[in-house]
Amino acid sequence: MSRPLPLALVQAPTRTLDEYAADVQRLAADRPQVRLVVHPELHLCERMEDAEPLDGPRDRTLAELAGDLGLWLAPGSVYERGDDGETYNTAVVYSPEGRRVASYRKIFPWRPYEKTTPGDRFVVFPMEGFGRIGLSICYDAWFPETTRHLAWLGAELVLNFVQTPTVDRAQELVLARANAIVNQVFVASVNAAAPHGLGRSLLVDPEGHVRAEATGAETTVLTDVVDLATVDTVREYGTAGLNRMWDQWSPDERPLDLPLYSGKLDPARWQPRRP
């Protein structure tokens, strides 16, 4: 059964909380069919000194905004001051009921440049009526373990929040398509606009086709309607009608040792989780 999700990927520079609220209100008025609004990494935070506890005033404002507009809001990531006193780069998501439904701490900060503390778990959450969404932040996309784990946890769409002002954005475009292809998931790579990023945001389908793309660094909004049921179709019939990677193993086959991880690949645990 079809599960269409109308979404908006907003390529924009860093905003204050008031500016963000005004932007989202205008978008909701201009595009009333959109159900999910996604912004870039650190969209509301320029400095680590702006860090707040996860349940601080910023959180309450964002939750109230989502509830007032009746939208799913993914306002990028923020600097979080943890209970342990550490600072994290944390993505947050709010539901149309005005609740924070997911938070994810960036596992792979861009070292040596980024000074935040790494997170320690992958995050996938259900969007009721649509499907399952996985969260990653910028440099996470360079580590194939990230998107693979999100897909294994049941993600059908991976939101990758980005703030890349450097020339390696060219490689990130390749990685967005590669991560979509090898995991047969939708990938949205949402970069900041100038002057905080080089833009070139894009949305990729489970076979690696680019559905929407910003060609420059200007502020823009990419809109599309993605059918998350396409993930099941591609996995059943194969990418290009050929490749069915999640059916590579029979559950009774011998496990394969993975010395890099001091572990193993167990065929009995290979397939992704189902909703």
Describe the structure.
With 275 residues, the chain is α/β, with parallel strands linked by helices. Helices cover 21% and strands 27% of the residues. The chain has helices at residues 17-30, 57-69, 144-152, 169-183, 230-237; strands at 4-11, 36-38, 72-74, 77-81, 87-94, 100-105, 124-127, 131-137, 157-161, 186-190, 202-204, 210-213, 220-227, 256-258, 263-265. β14 and β15 (263-265) form a beta hairpin. α1 (17-30) runs parallel beside α2 and α3 packs parallel to α4 (169-183). It is globular.
Essential attributes:
275 residues; 15 strands; four-stranded mixed beta sheet; six-stranded mixed beta sheet; alpha/beta; globular
Q: Strand sequence of the main sheet, in spatial order? A: 7-8-9-10-11-12
Strand content: 25-35%
Estimate the global geometry from the Cα principal axes. globular
Number of helices: 5
Total DSSP E strands:
15
- For the CA atoms, what is the radius of gyration? 18 Å
Averaged pLDDT? 96
InterPro entries: Aliph_Amidase/BUP, C-N_Hydrolase, C-N_Hydrolase_sf
Protein name: Apolipoprotein acyltransferase
Pfam family, one: CN_hydrolase
Keywords: Acyltransferase, Hydrolase, Lipoprotein, Transferase
